[in-house]
Design brief:
- It catalyses: 5,6-dimethylbenzimidazole + nicotinate beta-D-ribonucleotide = alpha-ribazole 5'-phosphate + nicotinate + H(+).
- It comes from Xenorhabdus miraniensis.
- Pathway: Nucleoside biosynthesis; alpha-ribazole biosynthesis; alpha-ribazole from 5,6-dimethylbenzimidazole: step 1/2.
- Helix content is about 45%, strand content about 10%.
- By secondary structure, it is an alpha/beta fold.
- It folds into 2 domains: about 1-60 and about 340-355, 5,6-Dimethylbenzimidazole Phosphoribosyltransferase, Chain: A, domain 1 (Orthogonal Bundle), CATH 1.10.1610; about 65-330, Rossmann fold, CATH 3.40.50.
- It has a 6-stranded parallel β-sheet, sandwiched between helices.
- Helix 12 (about 270-280) links the parallel strand 5 (about 265) and strand 6.
């Protein structure tokens, strides 16, 4: 109970974006060569980011990508193309700089932070992996709760405190994503519950499963919703019954970003499920959140609808690893630079008589 009280103390630290900062950004745009609304969705996001971080230096934009890793007991039901040991193998490749997300991070000049929230196979102490392990794997949600409530609370607090750490706190913007075999099953179950949508609408092909496996996966999600007595109004209970260690970690990271006033770009389906749970803990967190892209997973659109957000990209991606969020970072950085570096109308000597109207 003491730890749960600690979460509530942190939630009270989440404050709305400064209204005057928003006005200053709009005034800057009005006096700039940049035409209002000319960047489309990027206009909205650039204003959001600059209202949070007014002193961003566009040529020294500190970008950090966080990848949470965790295994799922439900993977034993063969709901994925891969076995659960693939999670730890991918995590190791990320730590060695050889995974797809490393290629993206290196290209865009972002710091990459892989975190072990609970992979099944033991990973020896590695200088490039942060150990926040809650266990080796969650329990099988089709047979009972994924984890106990204390682990959820511990994981959320760990995620919050990670953002306050020296390696992340000075970031101008964050991107968060995850890896974990079986996690689309967990995310689909949570989506069906929170959005009141049938598993027929929320369960996709994940890692590329067959139609028969997809049908079985839908039944597993239905079973998990029936067998677990879930308190719909309690995000911690939802995570305890249906969640994953890495999903818990992402919730904490999103809350931590809002607490520390850092804009955070959320990856695809699974991370957006975590975002919705964070939103249910504090609606103000939405002001710091950016949805990077619309995943190919069918349940994602329902989560985005609940968040009342619009994804920046729609490329049919489902790679995971925070890849979609990472791809949007240079777009956001460039949009912010347009606001900060464009000449003013006065500097450009544009006068009233230069207009046709």
């Amino acid at each position: 109970m003491i730890q749960e009280d600690e979460i509530n103390i942190y939630l009270k630290k989440i404050k709305p974006i400064d209204h005057m900062a928003k006005r200053r950004i709009m005034l800057k745009e009005a006096n700039s060569l940049k035409i209002s609304g000319s960047l489309g969705k990027l206009d909205i996001i650039a204003k959001q980011v600059l209202a949070i971080k007014e002193k961003i230096e566009p040529h020294n934009f500190k970008k950090t990508i966080i990848v949470m890793a965790g295994d799922h007991g439900v993977a034993s039901e063969c709901v994925s193309v891969f076995k659960s040991n693939v999670t730890s193998k991918l995590l190791l490749k990320i730590s060695e700089g050889k995974a797809p997300i490393n290629a993206i991070a290196n290209t865009i000049g972002a710091q990459l932070i892989p975190v072990d929230m609970g992979v099944d196979n033991f990973i020896d102490s590695h200088p490039n992996i942060i150990n926040m392990k809650l266990g080796n794997s969650t329990n099988n949600i089709s047979k009972g709760p994924a984890m106990d409530r204390d682990k959820v609370i511990k994981g959320i607090l760990s995620g919050i405190k990670l953002i306050s750490s020296d390696i992340i706190i000075n970031s101008d913007i964050l991107a968060v994503g995850e890896i974990g075999i079986g996690n689309t099953t967990s995310a689909s179950a949570i989506t069906s519950l929170l959005c009141n949508i049938s598993p027929d609408e929320t369960v996709g092909q994940g890692t590329g499963i067959s139609i028969d496996t997809q049908k079985r996966k839908k039944e597993i999600v239905r079973k998990s919703l029936i067998i677990n007595r879930i308190n719909f109004d309690d995000p911690i209970d939802v995570l305890a019954k249906l969640g994953g260690y890495e999903i818990v970690g992402v919730v904490g990271v999103i809350l931590g970003a809002a607490i520390n006033k850092i804009p955070i770009v959320v990856d695809g389906f699974i991370s957006s499920v975590a975002a919705l749970l964070a939103y249910k803990m504090s609606q103000t967190v939405s002001e710091y959140m950016i949805i990077s892209h619309l995943s190919a997973e069918p349940g994602h659109k329902y989560i985005i609808r609940e968040l009342r957000k619009s994804p920046l990209l729609d490329l049919g991606m489902r790679l995971g690893q925070a890849s979609g969020a990472a791809f949007t970072l240079p777009l956001i950085e460039s949009a912010c630079a347009v606001y900060l570096k464009s000449a003013t109308i006065i500097e450009s000597k544009i006068k009233t008589e230069d207009k046709n109207i």
